[in-house]
Fold each of these.
Amino acid sequence: MPVFWILAIVLVLGAAGYVLGRARALSSAGDDYRSLHSLPSYYGWNAFILTVVPALLVLAAWMLIAPIVIDGMVSGLVDEGMQEGSNLSLLMSDVRRLAAGLDSAVSSGALSASEASGLVADNALAGRLMGLGISLGSSVTETTLAAAQRYRGLAAASQVWMAVVVIALAAGGLLLGLRRINPSFRARNAVETGLLALLILASSIAILTTLGIVLSMLFETINFFRQYPASEFFFSTTWSPDFRGNSELGILPLLWGTLYISLIALLVAVPVGLFAAIYLSEYAGPKMRAVAKPLIEVLAGIPTIVYGLFALITVGPALRDYFAQPLGLGNSSSSVMTAGLVMGIMLIPFVSSLSDDIINAVPQSMRDGSLGLGATPSETIRSVIIPAALPGIVGAVLLAASRAIGETMIVVLGAGAAAARLNEGLTEAINPFEAMTTVTVKIVSQLTGDTDFASPETLVAFALGLTLFVITLALNVLALYIVRKYREQYE
Amino acid sequence: MNDMRPLERIVDTDNVKIAAKNVQVYYGDTHAIKDVDVDILANTVTAFIGPSGCGKSTFLRCINRMNDTIDIARIEGNILLDGEDIYDKRVDPVQLRARVGMVFQKPNPFPKSIYDNVAYGPKIHGLARNKAELDEIVEKALRRGAIWDEVKDRLHASGTGLSGGQQQRLCIARAVATEPEVLLMDEPCSALDPIATAQVEELIDELKETYSVVIVTHSMQQAARVSQKTAFFHLGNLVEYGDTGDIFNTPQDQRTESYITGRIG
């Protein structure tokens, strides 16, 4: 039975639980439904939750675990008959593909169910399967076919049992929910507990996902460091990957590019964004505010690739023609300055919009107190409003910094894809009109194309990603510390 | 200070500090203050009483042009401080507010240390030449605010960590530190308990030696206890203004009498 139908049945049972639970609560209360502990609908919802939630949890768990169990059972079979030199995981994927192919052939009517289970592994079979649209990595052996047949059998049984168990559980939950209903049953509190569990589930999904991302990066990174020395990765000043071997994979040039471009972006975005926020929240009239604020926020809605185009065709050439060449600083239209400036513009709305909200949240009484002492508006902002809003403003800047560090498109189009050359002297390294690139751009370029996922040139992407993650995490921790230490808390 | 016999107290001086003539205030289309004429004397505590929404706080905020910060407020008429029109174009509202200090209804210490709260005004107005002078000004202001003894050992603790009554006295000390000539107080005791209220009232009585104090209050007992002059506002009009004793004992206007005896408001 397809999962869709199982879901539908469970939900129908749940709906029945709601209706019956509500009706039962009303009838158990007799004439006066005010004698119920909770409103009648709470009894209905309680029955609904008891019916649906355990059944769906089991359904989800079953769908996650069953393939693993079946794989384990079938791989024993494949393992025994495996020929010398072949790979178990490749054979297993053949088995799964064959099983899926046979299933689709049966469902589309190309094979009858008995024909499918009666296939014999001979030379004609591969051709016949090909005719049915099933392509396999290697020839179909007796073992593969037997394993695939077993796989199909187990999967079908699993489907049936899953349907039976889930629907039985839903029905059981429904009965239990209905039996528990009496006027003194605290259905309202039970529903409250259910909602609490839902909220906890939502937040733990977010946390667990982060954990999962870190772990997956961590394992690949460990793989990388098995093949490439960590000291080279962290301290080498050259980045020259070569897929034929002998790569130099030093992170320093990329890290320098990332930090340099981010720094320029923040130097643009923080003052402009903060001043815009101060103007909008403290000086602008309501009409000006109503127009200007959405206009600034439009900037946040522009895709970064469009900013990248702007950098490529407008800002880059202009900087080259009017600054870099006259000053003798370079001939490239791709430069750190181009990417930094454009990225800074992209970040303005992040800083301004958040800061604006935070400044508005500072109580009016603070402003009155300061103005009442004869301070000018700007003195008030500098000495009272900004300190009071500081934690939030730091948060806004940090968000902007994280965006800057993670930005890829603007860098590719604005600053190029060549790593910084740290070995050619200090002036080369700090010249803002040199082309440079960032960690994120290199992660993309190492993973795109026809790559072997076992070579250090590819795996370095994970090490780069993890390093970036650690850096942004450290930035966050540092900012939290600063905020805790210097915050001026108002009520 | 719990003297409930206002009649026997006399007004010490006849120097007019603030003279308001024919003042009108509009909030958008609302005519909030109508034809108010009042002379506020130096070294006197003047109480503004009246039911909520009668315009007494609005009028108070006109005296140091705090209404300028409200976009829709519009003021007509003249308010003279020492004979000079404070709404004249040549007057800088920022300078004016340094001369006319204000204490608000809810204590609003800045989220800074106690010391920095008090030093804020002197710093922006350049009243101290060096750290020692600033220390002196802060100590003097905190003593005038009758809070020195409670905070002298923790001047660098946050001002927001104090109790409500201490916060309000800190705000008074903060206002006093800029050495204003007039001190406006907008219901300074409404958020305080009786003990803190008594402390603040005692303080107000001492402050009148140096300043002209204007206090808005909802408590008629408080008006009777601390003030020498009382103004009764009703629906935006100044109904009656005179010596506190006269207003409370022999009100001329029917509305004043009704309010004081608790029939309206």
Amino acid sequence: MTLLGKKQKCHAAQSVSFNGKRKVVLVGNPNVGKSVLFNVLTGAYVTVSNYPGTSVEVTRGVAIIEEEQFEVIDTPGMYSLMPITEEERVGREILLNECPDIVIHVIDARNLERMLAMTIQLIEAGLPVILVVNIMDEAERLGLGINIPLLGEKLGIPVIGAAMAKKRGVEEIRKSISGFNPKEIRQFNYNKKFEDDITEIALMLKGDYRLSRKAIALLLMQKDNEIAELIEEQEGAGYQAIDELVREKVFERRESLHMDISMQRREIVKGIIKDVFSAPERRRFTLSDKLSNWSVSPLTGIPLLLIVLYFGLYQFVGVFGAGTVVDLLEKKLIEGMFNPWITETVNNVVPWEIIQELIVGEYGIITMGVRYAVGIILPIVATFFLFFSMLEDSGYFPRLALLVDRVFKKIGLSGRAVIPMVLGFGCDTMATMVTRTLETVRERIIATLLLALAIPCSAQLGLILSLLSKSQGSFFVWAGCVLMLFLTVGFFAARVIPGDKTMFYMELPPMRMPQLSNVLTKTYTRMQWYFMEILPLFIFASVLLWLGKITHFFEKMVEWFNPVINAIGLPKETTVAFIFGFFRRDYGAAGLFDLQEKGLLDVRQITVAAVTLTLFVPCIAQFLIMKKERGLKTALMMGLFVSVIAFGSGYFLNKLLVTTGIL
Amino acid sequence: MMRCGFCGYDFEEKEGIQGCKNCPMSGGCKMIKCPKCNYENPSEPFWVKKVKGFFKEANK
């Protein structure tokens, strides 16, 4: 990563960059509409590349305004000139190394007070700033008033009110860019003592810098190492005296320096917005605001989560999807009407019994493979993905991440790990790949282990909920066991696996009513993807089962596994379900579902089987991805650990249920 | 433009499929990764895009 270089001849008034175009850099917090503005300004012709020496992507494009070409750069989201994350560091590098002729700071009108602090920093640093107050439409809907001309006057820069999603303000922004003429920089003063300290440091700086001396003095006081290195390089022998003075000033304020700077900036902002900003006496809290607040507070968020899970997963997916719809489709239509007809037809047309067995026999491609895929799995994943897409479109997931952040920290993860966990309910294989986006290796290992152990995929979850829907007691026993193991294994893993703890923060998108078109489109896409993936695999599984039957191989496998299955109190017929659970978890669950339908499992056995199968070894695709992401040794150790935990839990749960007789 | 279902970030679809070539599930998952939070978003089916495009044209 290049360091913030010394000032070059790039800020001579209205300079041009090497390719002859003036440069416009867009900066601002994440989710304020920078990328929308970038697209509006540049159109389709953009290039995306990693910023040199980093994995952070930067988008560049060309805007043509009044026949002049401008190079426009969209920076990653940043909260301040003092960087914490790699994205913020890249954002600052661009501001300082790319010699922008115009810096457009995009802010959210709904959070004017908080976001203006960065505008103050940018102006203070001597950068040529235009301020775009975006999302004005939402702010107006909330009853917030912003006097844009007065704000511009007070800041001494061009300010434009906009609503990028509705293309409001685009023309003003374009005019402002083409006619941009930097004026004298407005000074914003901190309290006298602080200003004196800053000035004392600033006066010692003799080099030529792109940032104002005041901004550099402030960054030095905040122990910005990159700035310190630059100053050392520029000032040479004079650096030691500067460093000593900075240390002295910092020591005087050692307990509250960062707080002082932030509080004083806040005071400056308050002074600026005094006559600029107006809000209704009582802020209008919409239902979505209330829901948003309830969902992130532990006191209300946990009951809300339980309600969502109970009605959404248990009642809608488990009872309705896997119960009512499967009953209609699988039992009445397929088993009752289609299978007898196809069996008779095939038997009449195909003279060889062995082939009849392959197509319409006990494990036949149609009578079992297609029946499982279409009659059982399809309605379950349809209801699951419908529920999932509604939650997703409402903006609930980021709130869930904030809600569980504290608990996840205890198990070595952070709220960010909600992303793979939530995706795991769709497909654990894909979710295992997503663990690579977690910040530390420790988090990735713990998340991979927990996904393999305690997160059932959509179809498996639906089938298990359906198995358990006959008895609410068994549902609570299953949920309690899985949750307890998830937390216990995570808790111990966090203590055994070394590594750094991570921080999690994110900007919450608004909570909103799910849009029907979005929900249906997402459900359709996910269902289509899932179905197209499982159908060939289910057919292949049927062929394997048929082969196993005609060669008597499965009888032998059942005999080998029988002692383990017996030890957890299950009949030997469930062995096949477990063997195929490794091939596809949902196939194994569908096998159990079939056994329950045939009346071969009582409530206790169903509960034990559901717990064991949920915790059971990851399916083969997930195992292969685990191997790819974490290495063969770790994947094998995890597979072994998960198998021991699954059958161990099944064994103890069976003993407990038999002894207590609670089910 | 599409909006991430997790963090609400607006991005171009092509930004979310840049890493797909190296993925072992490449060609199968039809998911678009948010460049900001890495959440996997389902892509809009081809025919839905066509229908939307048709209505957009008709409204012009």
